[in-house]
Amino acid sequence: MQFDDVHRVEKAKKRAIVNQSEARNRVELFRHLPQYVHGTQLPDLESKFFQLEPIHPSVYKVGLQYLSGEVSGGNGRCIAMLLAFREAIKDYSTPPNKTLSRDLTAKVSSYVSFFIECRPLSISMGNAIRFLKNRIAKLPITLSESEAKASLQSDIDRFINEKIVVADQVIVSHAITKVRDDDVLLTYGSSSVVEMILEHAHELGRKFRVIVVDSRPKLEGQGLLRRLVAKGINCTYTHINAVSYIMHEVTRVFLGASSILSNGTVYSRVGTASVAMVAHAFGIPVLVCCEAYKFHERVQLDSICANELGDPDVISKIPGRADLGDLKNWADNENLQLLNLTYDATPSDYVSMIITDYGMVRYS
Fold first, then answer.
1. Most CB contacts within 10 A, which of 83, 91, 119, 347?
2. Contacts of 188 (CB under 8 A, 6+ apart)
3. Omega of the bond prior to 217 within 30 degrees of 0, cis?
4. All residues at 6 or more sequence positions from 71 whose CB lies less than 8 Å from its CB, including other chains
5. What's the pLDDT tens digit per position in 153-205?
């Protein structure tokens, strides 16, 4: 939905379960994206727990986890959503004078709307939702309710296993052929599949070093760094502003992705494009690891038309530096807007290879 369309926004507000307060200092270029005051939704939603009859408790729980940031990452969010749907289907019973396929599709749609209010869907989640709705629509009418529910639960389990769990294992088996002794591998942020590749390479006895590049405000790389060091992997940690300084040491760059678009654009956590472009300038191969279920037919040339805006307050604060409070009351200045983008788009020109569960695709 275009959030700069006043009439459509008003209609959406009337249907909304989560009370959202629009941010005062909205960034003009991104008015088409939702910009809300962060920190108010979670307490309001928690207070409504016993009032939300149409929302299944498992769906409600996952929505709260999205809001709080407890569940994050493309695969993590998708799996949590599908498991919530699985529980909701398990407890579902068809109302009188209604058909299962139509009523359950409407239920799933209402759950999806709730998730969107908590946090905009990732592309992978959208693909998973389409899969589930397609399976519901194709249920044979001869099946009993219990058989139909069992079939859908089995479909969800199969999707998680084949499209995510096994897919990651296949990607690791492909990517491991690109890791050699004495390599210096650079990764950005924290990608679950890249982490699996690095751990597997270490288990095979490959001698390599990892450079973890990180950026505020999420600092996801710190968690990855701790886990890799705990496994005994030799690591270096740096922030994205120093990536050009350290890139001359690197032999390969491994990146995760939120999605691969039909024009070859890599849609991933903000900062990925910068890392890929610096690597390209140094002549370093950039390998992007992405499960096939995250591919999308959309074409995107920039990070403006479609994106997600994070909490602007978090970039005004630096953890451990209370003395840096120049932006403490930034929201009171109507001429100042802070922008915290979640994703960026990396053109295919800066990617050497895509590694998927269907194989490796060379870009250039």
1. 119
2. 212, 213, 214, 215, 221, 240, 253, 255, 269, 271, 272, 275
3. yes
4. 62, 65, 77, 80
5. 999 999 999 999 999 999 999 999 999 999 999 999 999 999 999 999 999 99
Beta carbons within 8 Å of 242's beta carbon, 6+ residues apart: none
* DSSP H or E stretch at residue 169: helix 166-175
* Whole-Å CA distances, 120 to 32, 35, 109, 139, 155: 13, 11, 14, 29, 24
**Under 8 Å between Cβ of 266 and 295:** no
Token reading at 78: 């998708």
268 by Cβ neighbours in 10 Å (0-12 / 13-18 / 19+) ranks as buried
pTM (2 d.p.): 0.86
Distances (CA, A) of 67 to 63, 89, 216, 217: 6, 23, 19, 16
Secondary structure class of 20 (helix, strand, coil): coil
Give the chain's count of helices (H) and strands (E). Answer: 12, 11
Q: How many CA atoms lie within 13 A of 207 on its CB side?
A: 2
**SS3 for 196?**
helix
User: Terminus-to-terminus CA distance in the chain, angstroms?
Assistant: 35
Domains in the chain: ranges and CATH:
6-23+31-168 (1.20.120.420), 179-307+342-362 (3.40.50.10470)
d(CA 187, CA 176): 15
